[in-house]
């Protein structure tokens, strides 16, 4: 009998470090169960304690030659519902905490 991840084919299931594999008894093919996703949320406290606090909102822009869109905003407050893309959630965070965090803007460089 062949083995997959240290388990013999024909076994109902076996466990590996990175995922659970369920083995099909008839075909001997391993089917991988989808992994569960975990949402990460930051606490309601400022996340920018000292960087450029004299500015109303800290936003950095980077010019990139190879982008499909003219402008892409990436979240830096960890509250976006579309993470890693920014959805404007930093505005509510900034009002609640007095913080000044803003997105990272990737701008398409004009040729």
From TrEMBL:
Residues 57-96 form the Iron-binding zinc finger CDGSH type domain. PANTHER family: CDGSH IRON-SULFUR DOMAIN-CONTAINING PROTEIN 1. GO terms for biological process: regulation of autophagy. SMART domains: ZnF_CDGSH. Keywords: 2Fe-2S, Iron, Iron-sulfur, Metal-binding. InterPro entries: CISD1/2, FeS-contain_CDGSH-typ, MitoNEET_CISD. GO terms for cellular component: mitochondrial outer membrane. The keyword Acyltransferase does not apply. Its cofactor is [2Fe-2S] cluster. This is Iron-binding zinc finger CDGSH type domain-containing protein. One of its GO terms (molecular function) is metal ion binding.
């Amino acid at each position: 009998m062949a083995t997959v991840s240290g388990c013999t084919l024909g076994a109902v299931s076996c466990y590996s470090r990175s995922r659970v594999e369920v083995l099909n008894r008839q075909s001997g093919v391993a089917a991988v169960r989808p992994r569960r996703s975990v949402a990460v949320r930051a606490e309601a406290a400022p996340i920018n304690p000292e960087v450029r606090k004299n500015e109303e909102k800290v936003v950095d822009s980077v010019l990139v030659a190879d982008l499909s869109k003219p402008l892409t905003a990436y979240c830096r407050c960890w509250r976006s519902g579309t993470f890693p893309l920014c959805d404007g959630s930093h505005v509510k965070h900034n009002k609640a905490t007095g913080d000044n965090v803003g997105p990272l803007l990737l701008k398409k460089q004009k040729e």
